[in-house]
Write a structure and sequence with these properties.
This protein is mainly alpha-helical and about 325 residues long. About 75% of the residues lie in helices and about 0% in strands. The two termini are about 15 Å apart.
Length: about 325
C-alpha cells in the first residue's frame, strides 16, 4: 500500500507541474502584466524598470522555474485589481467556499445515497418513480435557475431566508472565519448549499440506483439468499458495500467539482468566496488570481484523486490482491 501511495504522489506532482506550466503560460501570453499594473501616464523608462524588477526580461525557462518555485510556496504575486497579495485574498475568501462546498457535499451524500438505495430496492413503487422523475428535473435544471427559484420562493415570497451574502461570521483564527456559529450565517448558507447540492444529489441517487440494481442481479446475492440470510443483511451488508466501490470514484470527483464549479452559485447569491473572486478576475484580466485559482483547483482534484484511490483499494479486496501480484 505504501508503494502504491508513493507512486500516486509522484504522478500527482507531475500533474501539478504541468498545470503550473499552463498557469505560467497565462502570465506570459495573456496580456502584458506591466500594462495591467501601471496607468497610461507611466513613461517608457518606468515601464522598462518595472519589467526588469519583475524579471520579465529573463529567459522563459528561468521565469517558468521561478514561477513554479513561488507557487510551491503559495506565492502568486500581487493582484492587478486589488493591489494585494493573491495569497491574502485567497485566505480571506477560502473559508466561505470550503464551508459552502462542505455543506453541499454532506447534503448530496446524505440525501443521494438513501434515495438511490430506496429507488433500487422498491423500483416499482410510486415513491421510487417520483424520485426518478425528480432526479431528471434536478439534473436538467441549470444551477442559476435553481438558485433564482429558491430566492423567489424563500426570500421574496416567504421572506424566510436572506437572498445574498454570508451573514454574520465569527473569526476562529488568524484567517479562518465561519458562519456555522451564528443564526444569520446558518440561514444564509441554506439556499446556496441546497442549490449547489441539488445536481450532485440527483446524480449520486441515479448512480447508486443503477449500481445497486446491477449488484442485486449478481450470483453471490443469489447465493446469500440461498444460505438464508435476511434481506436487510443482503441489501446493506453485501449489496450496498459493493455498490459503493464504483460510486466512490464518481462521488469523489463530483465533490471536487462542487468547489471548482461553485462560481455560478456564488454569483447568484453574492457569496464572498473564491468562485466570485475568480469571476471578477476574468472580468478584469487579473492574471495572478486566475493562475492561482487554476493551481488551487488542480491541487484539490489531485488530493481528492489520491484519497479516492486509497479508499478504492481499501474497499475493494480485488485491487489489493492485484497490487500484491504486481509487487510479487
Amino acid at each position: 500500500m505504501i508503494a502504491f501511495v508513493v507512486r500516486r504522489l509522484f504522478a500527482s506532482i507531475g500533474v501539478l507541474i504541468a498545470v503550473g506550466l499552463i498557469a505560467f503560460a497565462m502570465f506570459r501570453y495573456v496580456g502584458d502584466p506591466v500594462n495591467q499594473m501601471v496607468g497610461v501616464e507611466t513613461s517608457v523608462a518606468e515601464r522598462a524598470q518595472l519589467r526588469e524588477e519583475l524579471g520579465l526580461n529573463e529567459p522563459v525557462i528561468v521565469q517558468a522555474a521561478r514561477f513554479l518555485a513561488n507557487a510551491a510556496r503559495f506565492d502568486f504575486g500581487v493582484s492587478y485589481q486589488f493591489k494585494q497579495p493573491v495569497s491574502d485574498l485567497f485566505r480571506a475568501r477560502m473559508p466561505a467556499t470550503l464551508e459552502l462546498a462542505l455543506v453541499a457535499s454532506i447534503l448530496s451524500l446524505l440525501a443521494g445515497i438513501p434515495m438511490g438505495v430506496y429507488a433500487a430496492l422498491h423500483r416499482d413503487s410510486a415513491l421510487a418513480k417520483l424520485l426518478q422523475a425528480l432526479s431528471l428535473i434536478g439534473i436538467s435544471l441549470p444551477t442559476f435557475l435553481t438558485g433564482i427559484l429558491l430566492i423567489t420562493l424563500f426570500s421574496v415570497t416567504l421572506g424566510w431566508l436572506p437572498s445574498f451574502g454570508r451573514g454574520e461570521v465569527v473569526r476562529l483564527g488568524p484567517w479562518w472565519t465561519t458562519g456555522f456559529l451564528t443564526v444569520s450565517g446558518l440561514k444564509s448558507l441554506i439556499m446556496p448549499a441546497t442549490t449547489l447540492a441539488l445536481f450532485q444529489m440527483t446524480l449520486i441517487m441515479r448512480l447508486v440506483r443503477a449500481e445497486m440494481l446491477e449488484v442485486l442481479r449478481a450470483d453471490y446475492i443469489r447465493f446469500a439468499r440461498a444460505r438464508g440470510l435476511s434481506e436487510s443483511a443482503i441489501h446493506f451488508r453485501h449489496a450496498l458495500k459493493n455498490t459503493l466501490v464504483p460510486v466512490i470514484t464518481v462521488v469523489g470527483l463530483q465533490l471536487g467539482s462542487i468547489v471548482a464549479f461553485s462560481i455560478i452559485t456564488e454569483t447568484v447569491f453574492a457569496w464572498p468566496g473564491l468562485g466570485q473572486l475568480f469571476l471578477q478576475s476574468i472580468q478584469n484580466v487579473d492574471i495572478p488570481i486566475m493562475a492561482a485559482y487554476l493551481l488551487f483547483i488542480a491541487l484539490l482534484f489531485v488530493i481528492i484523486n489520491l484519497v479516492v484511490d486509497i479508499l478504492y483499494v481499501s474497499v475493494d479486496p480485488r485491487l489489493r490482491a492485484s497490487i500484491h501480484e504486481v509487487r510479487g
